[in-house]
Structure formats: C-alpha cells, structure tokens
Amino acid sequence: MAKEFILYHYDPSTALAAVFIFLFSNGSLAHGWFLWRHRTWYFIPFIIGGIFELIGYAGRFISSRQSPNWATWPYVMQSLMILLAPIFFAASIYMVLGRIIRLVDANSYSPIRVNWLTKIFVAGDIISFFVQAAGGGMISKAKDDDQAKWGERIIIAGLVIQLIFFGLFVVAAWVFHWRIIRAPTQKAEAVWGLLRQYMLVLYAASFLIIARNAFRVIEYVQGSDGELMSKEMWIYIFDATLMFLVMLLFVIWHPSRIINRSAVASSTDVESASGSHSMVTFWKRGTVQRESSVR
C-alpha cells in the first residue's frame, strides 16, 4: 500500500518566510522603479519572477501559521511560484545579452544569430515552464507518494531542460565575450569598462540560477524522504538566497546603465519597442557619451 503524501516534513518557519517576503517585495519594487524610470521593458519578465517569489514565500508564511494542519492551496502556491520564478529571471537575462551584442555592433561575434538568440533560449524556458508546471500540478493533486514521485520526475525533466539551455546560454555569452576581447569593435571600446562589468554580472547571475536548478534537481532526485526536502534550511540557502542575490545583482548593476530606453527600441526581439531611430547612452569615466542611429 502506497504511503500517504505529506505536504511538509517540517513546520515551515514564519520568520524566514517573512524575511524573504520583505526582500523580494522590495527587490520587485526597485526593479519596477527602474522599469518605469528607464523604460526597460525587457525586464518585465524579471519583475514577474520577483512577484512569483513574493507570492511563493507568502504561501509558505500562510502554511507556517497552519502547522501542523496545512491547507493544500498555500502549499501549491508556494511550490509552483518558487519553482517557476527563475524561468522569468532567465528570460530577461537572455535579452540583456542580445542587447549588449547589438549595442557594441558585434552581431557577427555571436555564435547564434542575434535575431534568434533570445527566441531560442526563451523557447527553452517556455518548454521548461510547462513541464515543471505539469509536474507541480501533479504533486499538488497527489494522494500518495507514488503519485507524488511521478510529479517529481516530471519536474526533474523540466529542470534539466532549463539547465541545458542555460548552460548553452553561458557558452554563447563566453564565445561572444572571447571574440570581442580579441577584436573589440569601436563601440565596444567606447564602453569597455561597463561591457566587462556587465558580462561578469551576466555570468554571476547565470551561475546562481544554474546552482539553484542543480540543487532542485538533486532535491527531487532524493525525493520526499531525502535530506534536502526534510529540512527547510536548504530551500532558503540554495533557492531563496541565491534568487534574491540575482535580483540584488541587477539592482546594483541595472542594465539601464549601459542600455537605455532607446537601445531597447533598436532590438528586433523587443515586442513593445518601436521607432526608426534611437540613441544609446554610454557611461564611461563618469561622463555620458551619445551615439545616434543605433539599430
């Protein structure tokens, strides 16, 4: 006879949930302000990811107040929102690289055609999203451990898909970076300091998400009886903290410093941007330089 499925193997912490509600709400507000101030529409998915995290930890907060008689809906809310949030962070990170490549007029340096760069990786995210959502939905309806295990296997497949696409993204970013170092374009030289900074920020954010996804894969492989699911501290160390660091990185080094609202309009993969001519603001040595007609 299959063992009954248990929502939590510990009593969720009210204090930790409250801390990360505070952190993700403030991070989302900060990015919302940047979005409004600089018209960085390509960061809308990033803000959605922050809101997902906020809702997820609100679900954990509610569950913490119900211990040990947990309702199913807060568990489902926290499980799905926290699981899926990094997919939205990733989408904006992909778009930042595409805009940087266009900004420095280095389309030929990209190992993937720039028009397809964002589309390919976002498509991978969409596939991962639906696979993980399907697995999470199956777990939420599980009546016993056997049904939950099938949901966990589906989630693992979705996480592996995301890991593969994110790994390919890092390789694509590195190839572009290596080529631009070997033969910098004139526009790259104009923003060389910031270009170096933002490539490092992209790498750092990417590896934080990769580390988080690897943790999640191991967590689901171990299953409900494993070390990672049986102790709450792990989700806060290897998921909540890492994802907040991703948000914090882009608060400190927001892409609007190197890519302004007009640069967004020059990218063909920006759904909401338009206009035949645009200006790109370059920050270098504390002064603002302008280049016109960037497409």
Automatic annotation (TrEMBL):
The chain crosses the membrane at residues 15-36, 43-63, 75-96, 116-134, 154-176, 197-215, 235-253. It is found in: Membrane. It is a multi-pass membrane protein. The keyword Transmembrane helix applies. It comes from Phyllosticta citribraziliensis. Keywords: Membrane, Transmembrane, Transmembrane helix. The keyword Membrane applies. This is RTA1 like protein-domain-containing protein. Pfam families: RTA1.
